[in-house]
Write a structure and sequence with these properties.
The structure holds 2 protein chains of 2 kinds. By secondary structure, chain A is of the alpha+beta class. Chain A is built from 5 helices and 4 strands, in the order βββααααβα. In chain A, strands 1-2 form a two-stranded antiparallel sheet. The chains are: A alpha+beta, B mainly beta. The interface between A and B is large, with 97 and 113 residues.
Chain lengths: ~200, ~220
Amino acid sequence: MKTKLYTLFFSGLLAFTTLNSCSNDDDNLMIDDDDMMETVDFTGTYAQQDQMGRPGINTVLSGSTAIKNSFNVTIPSEQGAAFQPLFLDQAVALHAAFGATYETNILGLDAPTLTTILANDVLQVAPDAPTTYFDGTNVLTGRNLTDDVIDVSLILLFGGTTGDRFNGQDTDGDGEPDLPILVTDGVSNAGETPMMSFPYLEQPH
Amino acid sequence: MGSLVAAGVALIAADHLDAMAVAGTTADITDFYAFEGENPANTVFVANVQSSLAPAGNDATFDENVLVEINIDNDGDLVEDLVIQAIPRDGSMYFFGPYAPTATGLNSTIDTSTELQGEVVITTDDTAITSNANGISYFAGPREDPFFFDFSQFNAVIAGMAPNGFNVPGNDDFDGTNVLSIVIEVPNTLLGGTFAHPAGTGTQVFNTWVEAKRKQ
C-alpha cells in the first residue's frame, strides 16, 4: 500500500536477543526445548505507516486522501511547514460550505494561528497538572478516556469567539433553527465508564 | 465530485481509518490517550489499533510486523527524545523503554540492550492480564473502544449533505465496538523533562505522539 520507499539504514548487527533469560542457566546459550530459555527476534528496521498525536486532526483538516496519507508519514517537526497551509485551506472550505467564514475562536486564535498549532500533531501532557484535553480551565494538557475531544475540536474550529457560534440558533424568532449545529456532535461520554485503575479501559464487548 | 471525494475519505474517528493507505490494516492507529494514572506520580499511555472491531472481530490479533512506538519530546522541538516501543511475539507483548533512541524519524530499530524492558501475555478474553516491571505497568489486548462520536453525521456534514449540521442528540457509532489496546503506565520520573506549553498557558508539559511502524 505504501508508495514511498525508505532507505534501510539498518544493515547488519542482527543479534538474536534473549529476553526471558533462564536464571539458572546463564552460561548456556544453546536453545534447548527442555529448558526455559526463549529466543525472541526483534531485529530489523520498522518504517512509519501511521502517526497520531491529537484526535481527529488528520481526519478533519486534511482535505484529500493524498494529504491524509502524506501526513501520516511526516514527522512532527516537518508537519507545520508542510501542512499548515493545507489545513488553513480546509478550515476555510469547511466554513464556506455553510456560507460562513472562520471567526477568531474562544481561545482568541485566528485561523492561521489555530491551524499552525494543530498542524504540529503532538499531544501535550502535563505530568504535574490536571490532564485534560479541555476542562474549561486547563487546555491541552493530556487526553482522558472520557474527554469529549470531538466537541472541543468542533468548538475550536466553528465556535467563534463565544464557542457557541453555530449551535442551531433561531435567529429570526420563528421557532425554527436558522443556523446549523456545528459545535457539538450531540454525543456525550455518558456511555463510557472506564475503570479507575489499570488498565482503565472497559472489557471488550 | 467534491462531495463524493469528501465522503470517501471522511470515514473516521479520532484517527480511526484516517487515511486509505493505512485504514483497515494492522498498522492503523485508531486513538491515542495520555493521562494521569491512579497514582498521580504516573502517566498512562493508551495506543489503540485496528478500528471498530465489532464483537465478531474479537479474534483480531496484533501484527508481529507492526511496532507501536510512543514518542516523547522533552524540549519542545517536536523530535523524540525518548521512545516506548511495543511489539508482539508469540502471544506476548514486549516493551522497551522509555529510552533515548540512537536515531529519530520515520525508521526505527529496537534496542534490546536498553535497561527498561517488560512483557505481558496478550489478553484474549474479558479478564485483563497485566504485568509490572520497574514500576511500569503493562497491558495488551481487546478492550471496549472508549471513543464516542456521531461518525455518520460527521461524514454527512463534511460531504455537504447536512445543511443543519449535527443532530442533538447524535448517535454514537462506536458504541458496542472494540479495539486492540496497548496500555502502559509509567512513573513520571522515567519520562524526562518538560517545557512551557506552546500555547502560552505556562503549564509545564512534554509532547507525545504514537507511530505504527511496519517491519521492512
